[in-house]
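Homoserine kinase: structure, please.
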Amino acid sequence: MPTTLASGPVRVRVPATSANLGPGFDALGLALGLHDDVTAEVTGGGVRVEVTGEGAGELPSDERHLVVTAMRAAFDVLGAQPAGLALECANRIPQARGLGSSSAAIVAGVLAARALVVDGGQRLDDDAVLRLAAELEGHPDNVAPCLLGGFTIAWTEPTGARAVSLPVAPAVRPTVFVPGERGLTSVARAALPAVVPHADAASNAGRAALLVHALTADPALLLPATVDRLHQDQRAPGMPGTAKLVAELREAGVAAVVSGAGPTVLALSGVPAGFEAGTDWRRRELPTDVSGARVFRGRL
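Here you go.
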């Protein structure tokens, strides 16, 4: 069956995300109320990307842009490749800070491409969107909450990524501390050992299970539930400021973790009013995003 492209623009709104959440390495994620908006439209030729906000003047404005890469991958699956694309990216998610900016770009691109195909929903269902986005990102822990919203548990089957979303207890109040410096997931992953002690793996399994309960039903358990022995200490030498802030918050009784691969710090319980992180950090309280990625017709 021939593929028909839709006329007019589509807009995709995607949330920031925090992955790992301490012990839930490569599995747990949380969608946060901070969003990028991507408007996309098919044109007669060429690729044009306009970026405002985070990454403006730094990100590519052509085929190399990650949203375009994701759109092209999705169009391949959908059986169509438009001659040209025009994109407007209004970015609010900090780049390379551990808040899922790359996952947001990938999810936005896949969903925009699907929306620009008349029967895109039939050709690429929601499960297939998750599998493709996780394939492009390399792991599903950020793309899952970006797509589904809320608190997500993601895993990978032989057929690809799968995920479920669970409601977050109302008492969970995320706060992010975003530094000026950037980090790279590839560098953070390179710091991890290939083999971990059995006791550390067992400890994280128990804490991750407890974290599911704490986030959904009993936030009073968030501090013990966010103890990690697999990745945060191993990455600490590469981001000492992050490790120091996490330690200081936890000493103050706050369930703090490294957000994703860092260097942002995520606090899952209330931060004391008098706590000072220092001038190197931007502190921001964010609600949990319960909707996940959303698609609209037309521009803002």
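Notes: The longest strand covers residues 28-43.
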